[in-house]
Structure formats: C-alpha cells, structure tokens
Design a protein that fits this description.
The chain is an alpha/beta fold. It is 40% helix and 16% strand. Helix 2 runs parallel beside helix 4 and helix 4 runs parallel beside helix 5. The structure holds uridine-diphosphate-N-acetylglucosamine (UD1).
Length: 305
C-alpha cells in the first residue's frame, strides 16, 4: 500500500490481523475484518468503491499446510470464494492474486516457465493452484479479470526501512537465519547432498519491493487488457543455502552457527524462475536482484529483537 500511495492510488487495507501486523499499513485506510465473515465483506464493499483488489491474505507455511490442511483449504480457498462472491456482486472486475511457484511442484525443466505442468506437492501449493483454476472459471462465467503472480522465494524488506517487525513468525530461510543470529541459536541446513554445486538447495530469491512493483504493473495491464493472466516472479538467478548463510554473515557482521541436517521432505534441489513473460508483457525489471541487499533490508526490518 506504500507503493500504491506513492503512485497516487487510494488504498484500503482489509486484514483480520490474525497473522499480519498493522505496522505494515503506512498509507491509506485500514479496516479490520475477516474474509471468513461475509458481513465484514459486505460492510467493506458498501462503504468503498474499488477499481481493483489485490489478494494477499493466504497462509504460507508449507509444513503447517501438511499438518493442518483444513486451515489452508478454509482460509486460502473458501475465504477466497467469499471475496470473489462480493466482487462479482458489486461489479469489481479486476483481481491481482498472490500465487506461488509451489503450483509447479518438483520441476521437470529449469528455469520454470508458466506453461510448466502443475504438480503441487503439498496442500499449500494445491490451494494456490485451486484458486488459479477457480479464477479461470470466474472469468468465463462472470467476466472477472485476474492476474496470478507466482512468487518464487520472497525476501527482503522495505528498502527505505520504514516498515518493520511484521515477519516475526515467518519460518523461511532468511528470517530464520536472521532471528537465530540475533539470539545466538544454530541454523540447520536441510540437506547437504543435493546435486548442486555446494550440495545445498538452490532457490530464486526475489525482493519484496520488486514483487510490489510487479503488482502495480499487473494491475495496470489488467485494467487495460482484461483476461486471465499468470506470471512467474523471480530473478532467474539461484543462491544456495550456504550462499545465503555467507551473505547473512557479511551483511550482519556476525557469525552464524551452522548445523548440517537431513533433507526436508518435498524440497526440490533447484527452483529457478523464467520471468521473461512478466518482463515482456508487463515491462517488469527487478531493481534489487542482489542477495546482500535483500538480506540487509530484511535485517533492518527486525531491528527491535
Ligand atoms: C516454500 C514454497 C514456496 C512458498 C514458500 C513460502 C515449495 C516448493 N516452495 O519455499 O512456494 O512461497 O515456501 O513459505 O513449496 N532451509 C534450510 N534450513 C532452514 C529453513 C530452510 O536449509 O531452517 C532451506 C530449505 O530446505 C530450502 C531453502 O532453505 O532449500 C528455502 O526454504 P524456505 O525459505 O522454507 O522456502 P521454500 O521451501 O523454498
């Protein structure tokens, strides 16, 4: 919402705050409400008129999606249906949806293009794929235009350092490393025997500011052209777990205690995006492809710990 405001848009953030933080809402209006409650949605859409909706309100913890799939099908799928219902009812016809590389599962080809087969390997990835499929059906039935943005490994923080302390419960690699550095706890590498240059998994980390830019470009494109679109968002450049650990030490000036552990079930060795479609059709070009910059911005965002 910060970037949208900078570009002159009026925004309303709607969030239950069950996992989010109001500290992220630095511009525009904030409405506390729950996608599971149709009354909250009716009140929101009765009070405001919207040109477009950006839907980020999903659970994203892959491990939790395996142990508690009902939470994921309820929040990520069923609650999305509530949102689509009110959008159709009120004639709001543009949706930008946060999808994920998890829709592809273990890749057959690297880098991954958008037409790669969909074989999600966990409930989280399945919920994202189901919503993408629902969006296709809603376009045919109701003319709802949508753009699904398939994030690879989102990383970083506000480059200006204004938005802080929102990702304290995240258990992705970079937040774990930074939290453990602060509290002098060891970081476990999940597998050191992968067929990669240093034996650890390679991922395509993409700065959240670049993701935010892509959302605005996607919204403009959708409002002009309509349709049902999907784009990969990544740099197409991979970093191994060991490279991420090295960069974290360089950026923080502190030493990470490292434990070499077993592979985590369901981890592909390498995930890399082919994001040339977003470049060609949206004019998207990531501005912060450097891993050190992503880690520095993430580090600044957890300064109070
Ligand atoms: C996963 C999803 C991705 C989703 C993201 C959000 C898949 C294939 N990918 O990414 O779509 O958007 O979660 O949560 O389902 N690692 C360690 N030690 C740790 C933590 C992680 O070695 O303590 C390694 C992992 O094995 C992995 C890499 O670091 O190789 C990145 O892990 P993580 O940050 O959890 O993201 P993904 O699993 O890649």
């Amino acid at each position: 919402n910060k970037l949208l405001a900078q570009e002159g848009y009026d925004t309303v953030v709607f969030d239950s705050l069950s996992r989010g933080s109001p500290s992220t809402v630095v511009k525009g209006l904030f409405v506390k409400g729950d996608l599971s409650n149709p009354n909250d949605l009716h009140a929101l859409f009765n009070q405001h008129t919207f040109d477009a909706v950006m839907h980020f309100a999903a659970y994203i913890d892959v491990g939790e999606s395996v142990s508690h799939p009902e939470l994921y099908y309820q929040n990520n799928v069923s609650n999305t249906l509530n949102l689509l219902h009110i959008m159709v009812k009120k004639g709001v016809s543009n949706l930008i949806f946060s999808s994920s590389a998890a829709v592809y599962g273990i890749p057959n080809t690297i880098p991954i293009q958008e037409d790669h087969p969909f074989h999600p390997i966990n409930p989280y990835g399945r919920t994202k794929l189901i919503v993408e499929q629902i969006l296709g059906d809603y376009e045919k039935a109701y003319g709802l235009h949508s753009c699904s943005l398939r994030y690879f490994n989102a990383a970083g923080g506000d480059p200006e350092g204004l938005i802080k302390n929102y990702n304290l419960k995240e258990n992705n690699l970079i937040p774990i490393i930074l939290k453990n550095i602060k509290s002098s706890k060891p970081v476990t590498i999940f597998g050191t025997d992968y067929p990669t240059p240093d034996g650890t998994c390679v991922r395509d980390y993409i700065h959240v500011q670049d993701l935010a830019e892509a959302h605005i470009l996607a919204m403009k494109h959708l409002m002009k052209n309509g349709g049902v679109k999907a784009y990969n968002l990544g740099n197409g450049k991979g970093f191994s777990v060991r490279e991420v650990l090295k960069s974290a030490e360089k950026v923080t000036g502190l030493t990470v205690q490292i434990q070499e552990g077993q592979r985590r079930p369901g981890d592909p060795a390498i995930l890399l995006a082919d994001a040339s479609k977003a470049a060609a059709e949206l004019g998207w070009k990531p501005q912060y492809p450097q891993l050190d910059r992503m880690i520095a911005d993430a580090w600044r965002a957890i300064d109070h710990l």
